[in-house]
């Protein structure tokens, strides 16, 4: 634990520019895809809905929202020690995730411009939103005397290739879970302003509406491609991505539960709310959702959490690398087994109720 009386030290590329967090399975990822396959999609079956969403993007409801006000203009040295480290980690992870979305959407816009103008403009306007978010978060880091070199991130990060349908599953869930994460924090702090220790949280209500509109766009895209939702393979993949997104969030947040304590939240209770709300939302487009009301779901996630904590302790120990490998191996096996059991839990079929409420 960081000494609460000292400022944590962060590795820097150069003065004031933080070395990016080390990549792992739990850090935000950068994506690329098959642009030609995406350009060849026939979206005519749901083009009217996509056009309506484009009009919302063009309206740019948040064009005047992400402007720092007088509350930011003060010293933040009183946020110190472990709390300071937790805030920097939160801002960095959030900035990296938003910037990842910007890069993907901007490249999709460029690649689709001549082949699918409607999609290209949608992606371009979503990249505008993500750039605003990333820039706002990076400016917030400067309150802690740090920033991220986003150009360095662009060149240094590994890019994960996903086929278009996997991009749609993953980004849809990322945007929708982002909505619920932001809005639940906003509602909590609106009811408990004494816990709002930094002004960025005041911006979360409008912010999450960007996430929600982006998620609606991917919802409409998937509905224009019935094969992405209606066959047996789609059911397996939807199940996989739901579990991956929920488990990744849960492991990350429990690992950083101190951040949530600072703003008056219990990380477990908060994550359970987010999971349930996102799962319910996904049921409006996915053919199935997970049974997240089953206590077994969280019991198995807790086993994964404890194993992850042990993995971190081993990684931070002075044991030789070869010994660490053998110490970690049974923990990796246990986590893999829990994921298999979670994946095999009976899901909830939503096909009969889709389309009733949006």
What does this structure look like?
It contains 13 helices and 6 strands. With 358 residues, it is mainly alpha-helical. Strands 1-2 form a two-stranded antiparallel ribbon. The chain has a two-stranded parallel ribbon with strand order 3-4. α4 (117-142) packs antiparallel against α7. A hairpin with a 2-residue loop joins β1 (12-14) and β2 (17-18).
Nutshell version of this structure?
The chain is mostly helical and 358 residues long.
**Biggest beta sheet summary:** 2 strands, antiparallel
User: Which spans of ≥5 residues are poorly predicted at pLDDT below 50?
Assistant: 1-5
- Specify the helix fraction band: 55-70%
Residue-averaged pLDDT, rounded? 92
Major β-sheet strand ordering: 1-2
Along the chain, the helix and strand elements come as EEEHHHHHEHHHHHHEHHE
Q: Please indicate the percent range of residues in DSSP E strands (runs of 2 or more).
A: under 5%
| Spatial separation of the terminal alpha carbons | 45 Å
- Oligomer class: single chain
Structural class: mainly alpha
Which geometry do the CA atoms define?
A: globular
* Radius of gyration from the alpha-carbon trace, in angstroms: 21 Å
By DSSP, the count of extended strands is 6
Number of helices: 13
Task: List the main descriptive attributes of the protein structure presented here.
358 residues, mainly alpha, two-stranded antiparallel ribbon, two-stranded parallel ribbon, 13 helices, 6 strands, disordered N terminus
